[in-house]
Design a protein that fits this description.
mainly beta, 14-stranded antiparallel β-sheet, 2 helices, 14 strands
Length: 212
Amino acid sequence: MRLIDVDGTLWNGRAFLAAGAARVPIAWRIDASPLLRGELRLQLVRDDGGSGAMPKGDIAIGRGSAELRDVDATIPAAFIAAAAGSSAPVAGGDVELRTAAVQWAPPANRGELRLRWLGAWLAAPGIAEPAALGDVRATLSAAADRLSGPVSNAGGDLAVQGTVTLAAQGGVQLSLVLTPRRADDRDLARALSMIGAADGDGWRVEWRFPLR
């Protein structure tokens, strides 16, 4: 990721956060005094008339902890995929992130984080067209050293059911059962068999992403 078209200062500015070809407009304010005790306090603000295109919220990062408050952000899935290192268009739609308060301070995490992936799609091996996932939802609750919760969807070519876990030591783990909504969709079934194991009428897919 990188900042482009920067305007203002380190303490009060605006720019575009870029990953690959995707862009997210941001504006920020930084309180200088907490830096003296090794803590970054960053406020993301909207100067787009409240349209929702720009993320907003308060972020505090200290030694071994991070806290989000009053966060409301919509980020293109293509931006997230590019930031994770993908150079190909493997995902689409918009990811909404909402939280009143969530604190990452293992082993004493607390709070709740809500995610919605709207108009979701993923490129799948062996099929020409991306697989539509409809609208995907996850509500993650913080406890001990992790954030975890259920994942489900509405609409799309696939039914999605499972869990997502973000752990201090294990990183991000997705455990999902993906079931074609059409039993005669052989191309999609064949693609799923390449990445998962049969589980009832669907395929169980496990993904792990280290935090370091």
